[in-house]
Amino acid sequence: MSQVIESGKQRTVAPFRHDTVGSFLRPEILKEARNKFEKNEISAEELERVEDREIIKLVAKQKSVGLKAVTDGEFRRSWWHLDFMWGLDGVEKVKSDKGYQFHGAKTRAETARLNSKIGFSSHPFVEHFKFLKEVAGEGVIARQAIPAPAQFFAELQRPENKASTDSYYSSTEQLTADIAAAYNAAMLALYEAGCRSIQLDDCTWGMLCDKNYWSLIQEDATKFSDIAELYATINSQAVAGLPEDLIITMHVCRGNYQSTWAASGGYEPVAEYLFGIDRIDGYYLEFDTDRAGGFTPLKHLKDQQVVLGLVSSKTGELEDKQEIIRRIQEAAQIVDLNQLCLSPQCGFASTEEGNILTEEQQWKKLSLIKEIADEIWK
After folding, report:
1. Contact of 254 with 264, CB cutoff 8 Å
2. Number of H helices, E strands in the chain
3. Which of 85, 137, 140, 264 has the fewest Cβ atoms nearer than 10 Å?
4. Is 22 helix (H, G, I), strand (E, B) or coil?
5. Residues 94/110, Cβ–Cβ less than 8 Å
6. What is the pLDDT of residues 47-66, one digit of tens each?
């Protein structure tokens, strides 16, 4: 291991050698405030004050464990993806026929549906980011995570949403063009607010890795390659022409809801499409269980960084340090060690319910990641 350690170098731009996907367990006081707000027991302003206080504490804690990129923990959101979609022009929040299906669990039944053509005029996330950046201060990067454009496209194709989508868009080309334009404008607005690190969360690739999902595609007479190329194209169009000093990364996992998962399968089927997306500086990839397969698909990387999600955000049990180091060393046989970083495999609370572990366990995991990264990338 000594030879590998000697070759490791720290990074001064995102993604960092020890990093995180971004969502954190919601404190009980925040959950209580959100519940009171839903019952009209407190005002939006009172809820915002609670959110502000808890985000300030969260940022300080992230700094204390050595994170160089901090987030607001998604404390103002209910979902990792829907809240952003609801903020775009032409999109409304609706109850759906059923929730998202996970392994042994089902989510609340909500979705994002069109009520007109898609556009961008303003978005609550821009003001949310301004608050985060101010709180973050000097010495760290304030990062904004949003669902990927392909994820939004997939949401609009859900059976309960497709009729509405088709009523406003007669072709896939028109739909993808408007999605890309709205996202491009949203990311530019975040950039103008001072954001220099945007993370696109995209579970569509995790689903495409699942052979059971392939069978559904075949039943629908849609080629796997057509869908993969479409997802890559939407994402590429959305980030085209953005400022060069805006770091854009992508997170891929196989579902994360109350410590459960939705899909299985290695990255082999999607690697060439996924790593071929233009303008992506790094990938946060799930690798904490056998469900994600091995490291061989990383051979398709170009000069992008890959953040190995070797530490589980789903369980409270702390990983074995030497086993994580061994797996990093294994990945370094496929790509150069200095293209690798380390993080949890997903956020700790992709929805406000959160995963089944404690806040103390959450922070211990991030401390372990820093300890390992400091040893390997001196």
Report:
1. yes
2. 14, 12
3. 137
4. coil
5. yes
6. 999 999 999 999 999 999 99
